[in-house]
Amino acid sequence: MNDTPRIYVACLASYNAGHLHGEWIDATDADVIHEGIAEMLEASPEPGAEEWAIHDYEGFGPIKIDENEDLDDLAELGAAIEEHGEAYAAYADNVGVEHATEEGFQDAYCGEYDSERAYAEELFDECYAHEIPETLRCYIDYEAFARDLFMGDYFSVEADSGVYVFRNC
C-alpha cells in the first residue's frame, strides 16, 4: 500500500473530447485537493473546463472511492490512513467509512498479530497467567478462547503478515 493516499482527478471536458488530462493529488488535505483540481482544470486543453471526476486512487487499502466523493471527507480519511497506516483503512472498511473516527479507531485497535489465536494467547497470559500454576498452563485451550473472543467482543481483519485485531466498542 502506498504511504500517502492519493487520487487521480480527471478533467471531464477533456475526457469527453477524447483526451486524457488529469493529475495525481495527495488526498490528505482538503485545501491541497481543491487547489490541485483547480490547477488541473486551469491547465486543461479544453477551454472552460469545470467538471472533474476521480478516476483512480491508491493508498486507501480495501476502501472503494467513488468518482464524486466529498473532498473534505476524503481528505479526513486520507489523513487518518496516512497517520495510522493500513490498520486504519482496514478498520474504516470494516465498520463503514461513515462511522470510522480516529477516536473509535484508537479505542478499538489492539494491534497486529500473527493470528487471532496469537492475540488470544497474549491476552490470556496478561490477564490470567499469574493465577495459573505453570504445571497447568499446558491444559489451556487457546483456540477455544480465541474462538469465544472473536464471536462477539473482538473482530479481526486480514493483514499482509497476519491480522489486525479490534475490540467491538
Please write out the topology.
Blueprint: E1 6-11, H1 12-16, E2 22-26, H2 30-42, E3 52-58, H3 71-84, H4 86-95, H5 102-108, E4 109-113, H6 116-128, H7 142-149, E5 154-159, E6 162-167
Antiparallel strand pairs: 1-2, 1-3, 4-6, 5-6
Features:
three-stranded antiparallel sheet, 169 residues, single chain, 41% helix, Arc Repressor Mutant, subunit A, 7 helices, 6 strands, alpha+beta
Would you kindly provide a written description of the structure presented here, covering whatever features stand out?
The protein contains seven helices and six strands. By secondary structure, the chain is of the alpha+beta class. The chain folds into two domains: 6-84, no CATH class; 110-167, Orthogonal Bundle (Arc Repressor Mutant, subunit A). The strands form two sheets. A three-stranded antiparallel sheet has the order 2-1-3. α3 crosses α4 (86-95) and α6 (116-128) crosses α7. The model has no long low-confidence stretch (mean pLDDT 95).
State the gist of this model.
The protein contains 7 helices and 6 strands. The chain is α+β, with helices and mostly antiparallel strands. The protein has 2 domains: 79 residues, no CATH class; 58 residues, Arc Repressor Mutant, subunit A.
